[in-house]
Amino acid sequence: MALKIHLRLPGWIKGAAQPAQDLYPPDTPLRSVRYVVIDTEFSSRNRRSNRLLSVGAVTMDGGCIRMGEQFYRVLNPGVEVAASSVVVHQLRPSDIEQGESPPAVLAELRDYIAGAVLVGHFVKLDFDLLRKELQATESSLDNPAICTARVHRWLLQKESYSEDMFHRLEKVDLPALAKVYNIESREAHHALDDAFVTARLWQKMIYKLEARGVLTLAQVLKVGSP
What's the whole-model pTM score? Predict the structure, then answer.
């Protein structure tokens, strides 16, 4: 049976209706922002036929991970999932068959991310897929977003040059950065597990950004927007 996590959210989150860019002035300190760290798994690499299969998300208040506020759903988009894709995300046909309808999950997800700045590793991939799915429900995705891969590369470029710099700039997949930042990583390509790893990554990056003088939301969006 498909795993479903649904934890009760505080009223101020449920009631948030304004886009995050309207809630947070540009000079808002990084530690005063509500983030939602998000990850998705999808059916294929084909942009035209690709569909959302699962989504995991974790809430952060500044650098604090809210362990009791998480979101995980498996969806049934009604499409055949290639065996080569199953090997990656480990979602079997039976898991997908028991998944929830995309419109219902997307409605819950929109409530969950309302008023938050989204964070993800190569988050543009997640954004493009979520925007595509939301268009089918005549909804949109207008949250500001931060890509941890872009932030990491920016931080690297601020370091002194080293002979392995080019390799380090290219090797920025999530498992690789988990090792760089000494973060325990369990099951790769599980949306919720990857969201937790990315949340811990972002937690450590906030300290590094502040040390480099990146202190506000406007500054970090300039560095890390996808």
Answer: 0.84
